[in-house]
Each structure stands twice: as C-alpha cells, then as structure tokens.
Design a protein that fits this description.
The complex is a heterodimer of chains A (230) and B (483).
Chain A: H1 13-32, H2 37-59, H3 61-87, H4 95-117, H5 121-130, H6 134-165, H7 174-195, H8 209-229
Chain B: E1 5-15, E2 24-32, E3 36-40, H1 47-55, H2 57-60, E4 65-72, E5 75-76, H3 82-86, E6 89-92, H4 105-115, H5 120-129, H6 145-157, E7 163-167, H7 175-190, E8 194-198, E9 211-216, E10 219-223, E11 251-262, E12 265-276, E13 280-284, H8 291-298, E14 306-311, E15 315-318, H9 331-339, H10 345-359, H11 376-390, E16 395-399, H12 407-420, E17 424-428, H13 431-440, E18 444-450, E19 453-456, H14 463-477
Parallel strand pairs in B: 3-8, 3-9, 6-7, 7-8, 13-17, 13-18, 15-16, 16-17
Antiparallel strand pairs in B: 1-2, 1-4, 4-5, 9-10, 11-12, 11-14, 18-19
Helix pairs in contact in B: 6-7, 9-10, 10-11, 12-13, 12-14
The chains are: A mainly alpha (230), B alpha/beta (483).
Chain lengths: 230, 483
C-alpha cells in the first residue's frame, strides 16, 4: 500500500504531481458541485480509468486487482447500509443516487491511495524538503521505511498473543509492539547519529514525451468539470 | 601509549542515567591500527555500551555519565565534532534494518555516495568485493540478514573510516550468511581497516582476529586465544543416536501434502511430517527456506494452499523476538493473565508460580520484575515454563530461540529444553543449535527444509561448539551458579 514501484520513475516528477493533484481535486469537486447524475457517471468513469492507469504503472495487474477489491468492499458496505436503513424503516435512497455516491467515495479513496503509489519515499521527502518541512520529511521517511518491518512484528505478535491468551485478548498486542517500537526508535536514533541525515537526491523532474501525455491526460477531468459547470 | 594505536581508552567508567551501577568500570584498552579485535562478554555485560562510548552516542543519545579518557586517532573523543567522528568510526548495527534510512537500497546508498570522499573506482570495487552490486535495486525488507549486513558494511566503508565496529555481526544469520560475513571481515582487514567485533557466536572468527578481550564484572581484560580454541573435551560426548519407537505414542501433529506459496513462489511443497507425543523436532533450514512459514501454519495463522493438517494439542508459538510474547507489566501479572479464564484462578496462579520457580531453578526469582528486563535466554525459558506449567502437554513452537545467546546460554537452553520433555518444534538456521540440542537429547528428530521439501536428516554434530559452551561458562560466568 505504501510502497511504490520503481517503474514510476520512468515519468518525470512534475507530470506525476500534476496528475495526482488533478485526480484529487476533481474527486473532491464531485462531492462539492451539484452535477447531474449522467455527468457524475462520466467523470467518475474517467477518474477511475486514470486511477487504474496509475495502479498499472506502479504495480501492474496485481495492484489493479487490489483496486477492484477496494470497489467491491465499498459496494458491499453500501449494500449493507441500504439494507439496514430499509430494515429499520427509513426510506431507501434512489438507486442511482446510491450508486453514484458509492463510486464518488471509491474515486476519492483511490485518489489518495494512488498518490502514495505514484511517488517514491525519496521523492516525497524531496518535495517536503522543498516545501520547508525538512524535520517532518525525516520522520516520514523513517516511518515509511520501518512500516513493513513493523507490520511483520505485528503479525508475529498477533500469532503469539492469540495462542497465548485467546482471540478475546488480541488487543494486548499493543504493549509488546510499543516496547518494540521504542527499542527500534533508539536503534534508529543511534544509526542516524552514526550515519547522519543526508539530503535527498534531486529527482528527475521531466522525462520527455511521456510526461506530456500524462499532463495532457491529467488536464482532461479538470476541463470536463469546467465544461459541465459552464 | 604507542603512536600506532587508533583507540586508546584509559580508566573509563560509564553508567546510565537511570542506574546507580557502573556498566563499565576502570576500562583500559588500546587497539592498534589495522588490527581485528574480538570483544566477548555475557548478555548485558557492557559490550554495546562500549560501542556507544566509542561513537559518542552514549552521551548524545543516552545521556549517560562518562568518566575517563577515550582517544580516537590520538585525539580526545570530545574534541572531535560529530561529522569528523563519522569519518573515523563507523558501526554496523546488531539490527541491520536500522542501518538504512530509506526503504529503497539504491536511494539510501546513492545519497551516501554523493557525500562520500571515497573515489568512484574504490566504491565500485567495494560493491564487487562484498558482492552487493546486484542488491541495489531491491527493497530493504526483501533482503536476507546476510545481504543486509554486507550492504551495511559497504555503506560504512563509503565514509572511509579508519575503524569499523561490528556489533553482533553474525546475529540473525544462517550458516551461509555467517560465511559471507566472515569473508567480509577478512576483506576489511585486507583493506587495512581496524575492526572491532562484538560477538557471542565467535567460533568462526577465532582465526581472523588478532586480539581477544573479555568484559567481565564491568571490566575488560585481554585473554589468550587458546583459551577459546577447541580441546579434546568435546570428544568425550557420546554421539550415539537413540531411536524411540513411535508405535506406543500418541500422534500430536499430522501434516500431509501441504503446499504454501507467497504470490507466485512456492515456499512449501508437498510437506509431510508426523510428530508424536514427547518428540523434540528440530526444523533446520536456511533463511527463506520456509521454516517460520511452516511454524505459522502449525500455529493456525497461515492457511496452506492445499494439504491436511491435524493438531490435537493446545499450541503455543514463541516468536524470534521473544519479548513479543509478554503483554503484562510484571512476571506475576503474566501468570495472572494466563490464569484469568480458569475457574480456579487462585490455585492456578499458585500452581504456576511454584512450577515456574522450580523449573527455572530460580528459588528467589523476583516476580515483581518486568518481563522486558529479563535477558534473552531468561525470557525464552520463562515463556516456555509459564506455558508448560498451565498444560504440560502443550505443543511448543519455537522460532529461532537460540539467537543472540552466548555459547553457554545456548548450552543452558538446550539443557533446559531437554529436561523439560514434552512435544516441541524448534526452527533454526544454525547447525550449532543441532549440536547443542543433540548433546543433551540423543532422541531428537532433525528435519531439513529446503526448496526440495522437508526430509529427515542427520546433521553432523560439531562437538567443538558444545565444548565452547563449557569453556565460555568458566570465562564469562566464573563460579556463578546458573542452574
């Protein structure tokens, strides 16, 4: 989820920033603007296509399939909510409205997920340093680099505590994990002291014609929103 | 003091803020340029404190009180600024993941190369020498312990330091990883670096180092290498295997035709094994061979793609990082936690207390201690004891329980596990463990897990390593009674 493929570097940083911002802004506008249903369908379809394109670039078919799983989860939740509201006597919303709301939510969630997929940790750090967030960028980089290892410890703790104290006490994994995190933080602090915190390398900002294609495609949803509003 | 000493420590005393006791007392140590020095000591003896002192981290990170003189390249450590010290002393951490700042190896290493004062030709030579050029395009968590340690050594070399400190360089490594790190240390010597190694499993390093020091009772002393070399002692151990028939014993674990894969790669193929009541099973395999995966399948956490598994026992899993087992503030609370769902709670607590104290041979054990203050070996033994006291028939799954232990602590743990009896599966990537266990339990089954599957094997026993258990006891622990 938080690990992008190195393939994303085949595209310049600026085109990727452009595309991510375009998708997030348009996803938010879908909630803010009062657009008719048919236009929402066109825009959500376009945004979903772009999001799947990013998933394809950053991880191939597997990530695209993960994206579909996200959609299915939302469909299931939407279905349960509708069913529950009907059972307790509320009038169920029109089916078209329910489906469009669900897809707008999917588009918004995927827009943030794809943004993380579209940049490497080093690039995120470089952007943050350029924005004057140097200290936070160090913390973010360290967090992202240790996250997979923390998940491994988490799964180990889950197995251990489940067998030791039973399913009902799984919440107790928190304590050993906190202790692990403290010990690991001390190790990291020591390593940072020894190696120093070095500046991130400047990423490639442009990478030729491919970037222009990405930028052109990114403009499409914004232009469509403007056309629909006018 | 000689001019060719790169490290000169005179009357060093160190204690942490939270403690009244001095971890290091009156330590005097000179290390010559280009020498490889091995420092041994029991867990908690102060080895890591010495490393922190040599890098200055002891003051800046831990705020400890330091008295005495430490000269690095004839200059007091306090007169070096941090940047300058980084170019003289580099450390390869016990935990190799901590040595990398970025999740992509390439990003991490290239950022250092940009700052490095080492010429590009030497850098590419280091990459070839340490066989890490193919690892650049990988993620941090994709690499094995041995690969990470080699990369961490190369990363340290990019600062062109005179001194490289290796803190437990063989920890977490399998037998192949050990060989690759030992080769790397030889290369460091050839490059003229001064190498300071702190290691429990020092046998593979004995021919490599120039001097050996021991930290005992907070002080350091030079010891003769021959004290740690093998003797005829080991040959006295009877190595005749004993076979116990399975026919009269109950089948505890039945595994047939089990297959498991992560993504597209098959990790376990057609695994078949039967474990009977009282069996001690060693599951030997290199890192990545699927040992932990198999234990997690037995623990019920992972589901195999296909196959049949039947376990008719309460099962307990003790992870590689044993401290993940502990969830309570004190050892007494740990006992209360495992008894909390019993009908006769009070009698359960009393029964476990008496059994744990008896089993661990620690009559004056302080149950008010936090489990996180136990040493690695103590933490494993307490976890097992607690589990078995509740139900002696529990199947215990241990993932690399011998990691991070001195030879004597290994010897003790093997002894403890053998006396305990019962059914257990011990996963390990080191043949040493097989030797220690075999020296104590001739009726042990050893399986080797590899890409070809699981097969019962007889692994050659290294009696020298068992002998080291005795020798280390005398050296590190003296007359102390360790049960």
């Amino acid at each position: 989820m938080f690990i992008s493929s190195k393939e994303v570097r085949n595209y310049g940083l600026i085109s990727r920033v452009f595309m991510s911002i375009s998708i997030i802004v348009t996803s938010l506008l879908l909630f803010i603007l009062d657009l008719p249903l048919n236009k929402i369908v066109i825009l959500t379809t376009l945004l979903l296509t772009l999001e799947f394109l990013i998933l394809w670039i950053s991880g191939g078919l597997r990530k695209v399939l993960s994206g579909f799983v996200v959609i299915l989860v939302f469909v299931f939740i939407g279905f349960l909510i509708t069913l529950f509201s009907m059972l307790i006597g509320f009038a169920s919303p029109p089916i078209g409205y329910s489906i469009s709301s669900m897809f707008r939510m999917v588009v918004l969630v995927l827009s943030f997920a794809t943004m993380v997929q579209f940049f490497t940790v080093e690039e995120i750090r470089w952007i943050m340093v350029k924005l004057g967030l140097e200290d936070i960028s160090t913390i973010v980089t360290l967090t992202l680099s240790q996250l997979p290892l923390t998940f491994i410890q988490f799964s180990e703790a889950i197995i251990t505590i489940k067998l030791k104290l039973g399913r009902r006490n799984l919440y107790k994994v928190v304590k050993p994990l906190i202790i692990y995190s403290i010990m690991n933080s001390l190790n990291l602090a020591e390593a940072l002291y020894i190696h120093g915190v070095y500046k991130p390398r400047r990423p490639r900002l442009f990478n030729g014609v491919k970037d222009f294609i990405i930028i052109t495609v990114s403009v499409a949803p914004i232009v469509m929103v403007l056309v629909f509003r006018l | 003091m000689s001019m060719d000493n790169v490290v000169e420590i005179d009357n060093l005393w160190v204690r942490y803020r939270s403690s009244e006791n001095w971890v290091l007392r009156n330590v005097n140590l000179d290390i010559k340029q280009g020498h490889a020095v091995l420092i041994v000591g029991r867990s908690g003896s102060g080895k890591t404190t010495l490393v922190r002192t040599l890098t200055g981290a002891i003051k800046y990170i831990y705020g400890a009180e330091v008295r005495g003189s430490i000269k690095i390249l004839s200059k007091e450590i306090e007169d070096h600024d941090v940047e300058e010290l980084r170019k003289i002393v580099q450390v390869v951490n016990q935990n190799p993941y901590a040595d990398f700042f970025n999740i992509y190896i390439e990003d991490d290493i290239l950022s250092i190369i940009n700052l490095s004062n080492v010429d590009r030709e030497s850098i590419s030579k280091f990459f070839k020498m340490f066989k890490v050029e193919n690892l650049m395009n990988r993620y941090l968590f994709e690499l094995s312990g041995g690969q990470l340690k080699r990369l961490a050594i190369v990363k340290a070399l990019l600062f062109n330091p005179s001194i490289i400190i290796l803190d437990e360089p063989l920890m977490w490594l399998d037998d192949i990883g050990v060989d690759s790190v030992v080769e790397s240390i030889k290369l460091l010597k050839n490059l003229g670096k001064t190498v300071i190694i702190l290691e429990h499993r020092f046998k593979p390093l004995l021919d490599l180092v120039d001097d050996i020091y021991i930290i005992r009772n907070s002080a350091i002393e030079h010891i003769d290498k021959n004290l740690l070399r093998s003797s005829e002692h080991g040959d006295q151990i009877d190595n005749k295997k004993v076979y116990t028939s399975n026919s009269s014993r109950e089948k505890v674990v039945e595994v047939r035709d089990v297959w498991f894969r992560y993504d597209k790669e098959w990790i376990l193929k057609d695994i078949e094994v039967y474990i009977y009541e009282g069996d001690v099973v060693i599951l030997y395999g290199l890192n990545g061979s699927g040992k932990s995966t198999f234990l997690k399948i037995l623990a019920g956490y992972l589901k195999p793609v296909k196959g049949f598994i039947k376990i008719n026992r309460r099962t307990i899993y003790i992870p590689q990082n044993v401290y993940l087992f502990y969830t309570e503030e004190t050892l007494e609370d740990e006992i209360k936690a495992v008894c909390s769902y019993r009908k006769a709670k009070d009698s359960c607590i009393e029964m476990i207390k008496s059994k744990v104290v008896k089993e661990l041979s620690l009559p004056d054990v302080d149950l008010g201690r936090t489990p996180f203050s136990l040493s690695w070996g103590e933490a494993i033994r307490f976890a097992i004891s607690l589990t078995r006291a509740l139900d002696p028939k529990t199947l215990i799954l241990l993932d690399e329980p011998f990691t991070g232990l001195t030879y004597y602590e290994r010897f003790l743990l093997a002894d403890y596990l053998s006396k305990l009896g019962g059914t257990m599966v011990i996963a390990t990537s080191n043949k040493d463990v097989v030797s220690f266990m075999y020296a104590k339990n001739r009726d042990m089954k050893t399986f080797k897990l590899s890409s070809d599957g699981l097969e019962e094997v007889e692994i050659g026993i290294d009696l020298d390593v068992v002998d080291l258990g005795y020798r280390v006891r005398e050296l590190l622990y003296g007359d102390e009674d360790w049960g």
